[in-house]
Design goal:
23 helices; Beta-Lactamase; 5-stranded antiparallel β-sheet; alpha+beta; 22 strands
Length: 749
């Protein structure tokens, strides 16, 4: 009896919900109702409730064992009894809406239990059918099948073929384990107990284990077998199924085949024999020479894994052809021991036993790698020459044409018959970029020459070609032929010339537009200078007369008037400062930079010293690094760092301790990068592009004074030096301004 059969038998021993006969089923419904009613009445007498649930139990019993009809009968009787015996007023039948709900619950419960019953029946039928099918398959399987309990180490099931193979009764076999039906050691010399535990453990871990094994029958006769172990899914025990095939005939046939193959061991052809599971059983000297593995290393290894075989079609299709015709022939790609891959012409022959069952495969292979490479080279060359659109010409050492392809016919207009035998440079009226003797000398020295030639077509049209010429020598080293591959590039040369002409025109237009733009910029700068200069006198007049008015009429004015005069003076002062800055900004655009070597450390120290009187009383931490030398205008660069340091001092004024760092970065080989970093109020980087515009400010005049020209001045000066300026900041976390300038010795961009 199989494991599945025992489980099915155990389940069938449980109370079955199937009761045959309608009378018995309806009688069961009435009896279960009566019992539930009696229990409910008795419980009420002792003050115990839950009569509704007791009647539900009666419906469940009737539905589970009797089906839908008896369940409905029990439901109707339970509804009437519950209303009569347990619902106020007692001992009266009268249905309210609440009673109807109880009836609906009883009937729904009856339907639910009946449905569960039907599902259970179907599951049991399917399980029984599956068990029967499995039992039939196991008992009639061609191989011997045993089931092993890993925990006890004993067989718990065996089919008829297993009984026949081991020569023991099933009862006797189930008292034994795999070691008891095996010799002490296996043919490989390992103890049977050790090998058995290792293979069983692999199967328990989920592997599909296949191996050859030596068994013993009841007469202690050795039986060579092929064993496949697979773990079975079982809830309570760890079970492994073993499928065992007697390979005595196969071993005998393989041995005979090997003996015959030994006769071929003297040949250098590659011959090996493999079993139907692809394990190598014979490996001749030719195989050892070709693949590099010795016979001891190859035997017992799957051939396709050892040689990393690449098949021309799926292996399943090849095996199907082999089983159908007993032979297969084709080309395979194998790998040698050193990893080298090569192509072999392989022929397989199938050996069968007396019962026409496949036993082994004899495989002979011949290395055809060089032949395949030569064939491929020839095919590639022939195809390339045939399909090439380039003109391919072969000429002898006297420059007479011996080959003229279709591309040459299309390019030059002469047919192969017209061109063959003609001297190429006379036929094509070749114009060389150097002397013809220099080209011939290069061919003789290096075997190759490449350049542009001018040829004349049959109709007299001149064309330009790129020519690649190769010299081929004979076995004695003497020049044998010259292959010339020419490509017509006349259209490309025309396009290049046209593109060059257009580029020249574009460059000229750019120069002209640049001059126009420079003239416009100079006009704008002159206009800004003129406007700023002309505004200074009126602003001074406004400030002067307002001061006189404040001096002589202050005693007449009230507080509001005096405040307004003060505002006029402040506005005039800011306007004067703004005009001065604007004049300085316009002068920068008109002034030429006087570039020389600049020591940035000296400039920064001088700027910090200028601000010392204005910063007395403030707590400022200066961190000034070792600044490099650069190439630029000293006066302009001093103005740059004056503006940057001034900004850093201004926007850290609200800090208890200002921290200002001035240092450099090793940014690139062609430039130096200096940064000015502070811990001031910072700004939102979304508006960083506005900061370098004229009159652009992100803080109010009341919070931080200024005209909005300082950073615009910085950017203009740095751009005039061929450098760049950028910044990084966040609100309330300070700002860092970076200035990139040409390194010492680099030309101004």
């Amino acid at each position: 009896m199989s494991i599945s059969t025992k489980q099915a038998t155990a389940e069938s021993a449980m109370p079955s919900p199937r009761i045959r006969g309608a009378a018995y089923r309806y009688r069961l419904a009435i009896v279960s109702f009566a019992i539930a009613l009696g229990v409910g009445l008795l419980a009420r007498r002792y003050g115990i409730g839950h009569q509704f649930a007791m009647l539900l139990f009666a419906i469940a019993v009737a539905g589970w064992y009797g089906g839908l009809g008896p369940a409905l009968v029990a439901a109707v009787l339970s509804s009437l009894a519950y209303d009569y015996f347990f619902t106020q007023p007692l001992y009266q039948l009268g249905f309210t809406k609440y009673d109807l709900i109880d009836i609906a619950l009883y009937i729904s419960f009856a339907f639910l239990i009946s449905r569960f019953r039907e599902v259970r029946w179907r599951a049991e039928d399917k399980l029984r059918e599956s068990e029967e099918r499995y039992r039939t398959l196991v008992q009639h399987a061609p191989e011997a099948i045993v089931v092993l309990d890993v925990d006890t180490g004993r067989f718990v099931d065996a089919n008829k073929n297993a009984v026949r193979l081991f020569g023991r009764s099933k009862e006797a076999l189930l008292e034994l384990g795999p070691v008891a039906v095996s010799p002490p050691t296996q043919p490989d010399g390992r103890p049977s107990s050790e090998s058995a535990v290792e293979n069983i453990q692999k199967a328990v871990e989920g592997a599909d284990v296949v191996f050859e094994w030596m068994h013993l029958d009841a007469a202690e006769k050795e039986i060579p077998c092929e064993v496949r172990l697979v773990r079975l899914l079982a809830a309570e025990r760890v079970l492994v199924r073993g499928s065992i095939i007697d390979i005595t005939e196969r071993e005998r046939a393989q041995q005979a085949l090997k003996e015959r193959a030994d006769l071929l061991d003297l040949t250098h052809d590659t011959i090996f024999v493999r079993a139907m599971n692809n394990v190598i059983t014979y490996w001749n000297r030719g195989a050892q020479e070709l693949y590099g593995w010795s016979s001891e290393e190859a035997l017992g290894r799957p051939s396709h894994e050892l040689l990393r075989t690449e098949f021309p079609e799926p292996l399943e299709q090849i095996n199907a052809k082999l089983l159908q015709t007993d032979r297969w022939e084709g080309e395979l790609i194998h790998a040698a021991r050193d990893g080298k891959r090569f192509v072999v012409s392989s022929r397989w022959s199938l050996q069968r036993d007396a019962h026409d069952e496949p036993l082994a495969i004899l495989e002979t292979s011949t290395d055809i790698t060089e032949r395949k490479r030569a064939e491929q080279d020839l095919r590639s060359q022939a195809e390339l020459i045939r399909l090439a659109h380039d003109a391919i010409i072969v000429r002898d050492p006297e420059s007479r044409v011996t080959f003229w392809n279709a591309g040459a016919e299309k390019t030059y207009g002469w047919t192969a018959g017209e061109a063959t035998g003609r001297v190429t440079h006379e036929l094509l009226q070749t114009r060389f970029p150097v002397s013809r003797e220099a080209v011939d000398f290069a061919l003789q020295e290096s075997g190759e020459w490449e350049g542009e030639l001018t040829h004349v077509r049959k109709g007299g049209t001149a064309i330009v070609v790129t020519s690649r010429q190769s010299l081929r020598r004979d076995s004695h080293g003497a020049p044998a032929a010259i292959m010339e591959i020419n490509r017509d590039v006349t259209d490309r040369k025309r396009s290049e010339e046209e593109l060059r002409r257009l580029n020249e025109e574009l460059e000229q237009r750019v120069i002209e537009r640049t001059k126009e733009l420079e003239a416009v910029n100079k006009q704008l700068e002159a206009f800004a200078y003129s406007v700023s200069h002309d505004l200074r006198a009126p602003v001074r007049h406004i400030a002067g007369f307002t001061e006189l008015l404040q001096k002589h009429a202050a005693w007449i004015l009230d507080d509001k008037g005096r405040h307004q005069i003060s505002m006029i003076l402040d506005a005039a002062s800011r306007m004067g400062t703004l005009i001065d800055d604007l004049l300085a900004f316009s002068r920068i655009g008109r002034a030429e930079t006087q570039n020389t070597t600049v020591d940035l450390s000296q400039i920064v120290k001088g700027v910090i010293g200028e601000f010392a009187p204005d910063t007395q009383g403030r707590k400022i931490v200066w961190r000034v690094g070792d600044l490099p030398r650069c190439y630029g205008d000293p006066a302009m660069l001093r103005l740059v760092f004056t503006n940057l340091v001034s900004n850093a001092l201004k926007f850290t004024r609200t800090r208890d301790q200002a921290e200002i760092e001035i240092d450099s970065l090793n940014h690139s080989p062609a430039e130096v990068v200096v940064f000015v970093k502070d811990n001031g109020v910072g700004f939102d980087t979304r508006y960083k592009d506005k900061l370098f515009g004229v009159f652009q400010r992100l803080h109010s005049q009341e919070a931080f004074e200024g005209t909005g020209i300082g950073l615009a001045t910085v950017q203009r000066i740095i751009h005039a030096h061929g450098g760049k300026v950028w910044l990084d900041s966040s609100v309330d976390h300070g700002a860092t301004f970076y200035v990139a300038l040409p390194k010492l010795g680099k030309a101004n961009a």
